[in-house]
Amino acid sequence: MSLKVTNARRKQRVRNALRRSANGRPRLSVFRSSKHIYAQVIDDLKGETLASASSLEKTMREAGNTGANIDAAKAVGKLLAERAVQNGVKEVVFDRGQYLYHGRVKALADAARESGLSF
């Protein structure tokens, strides 16, 4: 079985579990590449993005956060949580996708919790 198939299965398994337990809450989705990290709060019922942040933004690049480290993930999590709270979102479900809850993904989640999001 190839790695691509394994990752796709894990991603689908996580998403299905989230749909069962979401109870109408928006989803905090994380995507990480080798150079950057992206996160967005998505309302699946309406099909729209409520808040987003990434290490590609100008403020992140000026601060020296490349996205390939834990410090950048913390900054993205904090920024995302601030934007979500401004838009009236306080409770979300965390969608780690195909990634293990470890390293940059965990750092982003912890920073979002500390900045006001509940999950």
From TrEMBL:
- Annotated Gene Ontology cellular component terms: cytosolic large ribosomal subunit
Pfam families noted in UniProt: Ribosomal_L18p
Which Gene Ontology terms cover its molecular function? 5S rRNA binding; structural constituent of ribosome
Q: Which UniProt keywords apply?
A: Ribonucleoprotein, Ribosomal protein, RNA-binding, rRNA-binding
Query: One biological-process term from Gene Ontology?
Result: translation
* UniProt xrefs under InterPro entries: Ribosomal_L18, Ribosomal_uL18_bac-type, Ribosomal_uL18_bac/plant/anim
Q: Which SUPFAM superfamilies match?
A: Translational machinery components
Keyword Aminoacyl-tRNA synthetase recorded: no
The UniProt similarity line reads:
Belongs to the universal ribosomal protein uL18 family.
Q: How does it assemble?
A: Part of the 50S ribosomal subunit; part of the 5S rRNA/L5/L18/L25 subcomplex. Contacts the 5S and 23S rRNAs.
| Record PANTHER family | 39S RIBOSOMAL PROTEIN L18, MITOCHONDRIAL, LARGE RIBOSOMAL SUBUNIT PROTEIN UL18M
Q: What does this protein do?
A: This is one of the proteins that bind and probably mediate the attachment of the 5S RNA into the large ribosomal subunit, where it forms part of the central protuberance.
What's the protein called, per UniProt?
Large ribosomal subunit protein uL18
